[in-house]
Design brief:
Layout lengths: L8 E6 L3 H16 L3 E3 L7 E6 L4 H17 L4 E6 H5 L1 H5 L4 E5 L7 H7 L15 H4 L3 E4 L1 E2 L10 H5 L3 E2 L2 H13 L4 E5 L7 E2 L2 E2 H11 L4 E4 L9 H4 L10 E3 L7 H7 L5 H14 L4 E8 L6 H14 L3 E6 L17 H24 L5 E10 L2 E6 L4 E5 L8 E9 L6 E4 L2
Parallel strand pairs: 1-2, 1-3, 3-4, 4-5, 6-9, 9-12, 13-14, 14-15, 18-20
Antiparallel strand pairs: 7-8, 10-11, 16-17, 16-19, 17-18, 19-20
Helix pairs in contact: 8-9, 13-14
Length: about 425
């Protein structure tokens, strides 16, 4: 590409968590500011970059499929794999046909420099700095924490992300300010365990207080917390309406026996107390969660405990994962594995409950007027999110992108995908 007058096209793609998405956003800004043209992952590109996930075998398979598809779509382009799967199994990804470069988590921050130095990418001679950044994503994700010091028996994250580290608070404040200046209406704070954020004696509560006091962010959302990180002092901050009424509180199992084998560090009772504390202070709050079914040794009675607890709590969303052994974790060596057929049946039941719970939560808000951040449109139908994570759709010929507007929620849409809204 050296000497070419065209602007090289760079496609960035992501599998996995909001932390991965935040890191991909950062890379997108770096490439755009250097003058490269950002394109969709589905478009032809001179360089395709996949930020990979390896938390389950399904994530692994999805990453391999996307890399092969990218090579077929761009036979003359450069295909790059970065991130957690690349950290765990570099040689496995390097053997996929068409993959040119594999970089782990510690290397991906200098990805653009590596590509340019190797000659795989030539920086444009003139710049369109900042182009395409605003369209990359409506909500800005800001990384505040990385790594994990916990030892949950099933989890590969500490092995691929390393130990805990928090981003300096002034850097976080500066990035939030910059994202607001870029025009973003909502900022999502993300990390492996943001509830354990600590920098120079300042924890998550202090970080939130400073962001709310020192920036003009209109919406501030947290990506995920653990039940032991919920305190009355933290939840009191939600009296500030800029904090979104949405808590992703990982459960993983509703059985104390399974939680002990998972080494989760909390009990069902502790989880219930955290939920009650949140709901006492934050009316209309959405609480979403993760559930693993078929963990080694999970009996039918233990699964029923999980099922009944999830029904009792009434989550707004439940993400269901059949247990996936990860080499190098303690659980991968545990006896009494649960058969695939049993996992499928338990997943089916839990997914049906998840759909029912999501429907019941959304029904509570029919007839109410709520503020929606509109994100994208297809065929004249716009989609957006309320602060408590309800997906809303409306027809409009106006450009609603990145606008916060009040909408009356009028009816549930087929296939349980969300609610229909109309403007007054």
């Amino acid at each position: 590409m050296a000497g070419s007058l065209k602007i090289p096209r760079v496609a960035l793609d992501t599998v996995g968590c909001k932390l991965n998405q935040a890191e991909t956003q950062l890379l997108a800004r770096q490439f755009a500011q250097a003058g490269y043209r950002l394109v969709s992952a589905d478009d032809e590109a001179d360089v395709y970059i996949l930020n990979t996930c390896t938390v389950t075998h399904v994530a692994d398979r999805k990453c391999r499929q996307r890399l092969r598809l990218a090579h077929r779509r761009n036979p003359g382009g450069v295909v790059v794999a970065i991130g957690c799967y690349a950290e765990r199994a570099r040689h496995e990804l390097a053997q996929i046909e068409g993959v040119d470069l594999v970089l782990g988590n510690s290397e991906k921050s200098n990805l653009m420099g590596r590509l340019e130095k190797s000659g795989r990418l030539s920086r444009p001679s003139y710049s369109q700095a900042g182009s395409a950044i605003a369209d990359f994503r409506t909500r800005a994700l800001v990384k505040v924490h990385d790594g994990c010091n916990s030892s949950c028996s099933y989890c590969i994250v500490p092995l691929v992300r390393g130990g805990e580290k928090s981003i300096p608070i002034d850097r976080v404040i500066g990035e939030v300010r910059q994202r607001v200046a870029d025009g973003y209406k909502e900022v999502v704070l993300t990390g492996v365990k943001i509830g354990l954020y600590r920098y120079q004696g300042i924890g998550l509560q202090g970080l939130l207080e400073r962001i709310l006091a020192e920036t003009d962010v209109e919406r501030l959302r947290l990506s995920s917390l653990q039940p032991g990180e919920i305190s009355p002092e933290l939840i009191e901050l939600w009296h500030d309406k800029r904090l979104c009424r949405h808590f992703h509180l990982s459960l993983q199992s509703g059985s104390d026996g399974v939680l002990r084998r998972m080494k989760r560090g909390y009990t069902v009772g502790g989880y219930q107390r955290a939920v009650a504390l949140i709901r006492d202070v934050v009316p209309g709050v959405a609480i979403t969660t993760d559930i693993i079914v078929g963990f080694p040794g999970e009996t039918e009675a233990e699964f029923e405990e999980s099922y009944k607890l999830c029904r009792q709590i009434g989550f707004s969303r439940i993400h269901v994962f059949p247990y996936s052994p990860r080499q190098g974790t303690q659980a991968a060596l545990m006896p009494d594995g649960v058969g695939d057929g049993v996992k499928r049946e338990r997943s089916r039941r839990m997914l049906a409950l998840a759909e029912e719970s999501a429907h019941n939560f959304r029904q509570r808000f029919l007839g109410k007027t709520m503020t929606v951040l509109w994100e994208k449109q297809s065929g004249g139908v716009w989609a957006g999110l309320t602060d408590n994570y309800i997906r809303v759709y409306t027809k409009s010929s106006e450009d609603l992108a990145n606008r916060l507007l009040p909408v009356k929620l009028t009816e549930a849409l087929p296939a349980n995908i969300g609610l229909k809204g109309v403007f007054h």
